[in-house]
Amino acid sequence: MLELSAYPSPGQLRVYDIEAISLPIVYNKFGDHAPNGMLYVLKQDSQRIQREARKRFELPVPQPYEEVQPLVIRANVGDTVQINFENKLGRRASIHMQGLSYNVLTSDGTDVGYNPDSTTSRRICYTWQADQEGVSCSPTWRTPAAARTAPTSTACSGPSS
Fold first, then answer.
1. What homologous superfamily does CATH list for 1-161?
2. What's this model's pTM, rounded to 2 decimal places?
3. N or C: which terminus of the chain carries fewer CB neighbours within 10 A?
């Protein structure tokens, strides 16, 4: 029997269209909530999640919507992950990944040091390599304190962008 890490890697390109959105997040059936919550969602689910979450928020006692939860994306060892990220928050944001390899100049999702700013007020493409087995994570929102105007990418042209 092969060990998990010994299985052949398909080395696929996995593309995810992700949006950062703002919506009220209700925590429990008692109506405790964050009126200006922020969430990563797949673009294909964005309108439905926003519509249903707002509908439940407007009830006399706001109720949670089960699809308002952390976003999980998956890849196999050897895959390239391309994130087409669209920011709909009205301020700069990004996705910063830990545990996957990437080009720090284009796909870090931060604005630190002498590296180019890879946060965005609109759209940007991140490319990550799933080069080892395990769980990788993105810490909480990365939004620079100062709202700077910097050039932003508007489209992805492939895994090398």
1. Cupredoxins -  blue copper proteins (2.60.40.420)
2. 0.79
3. N
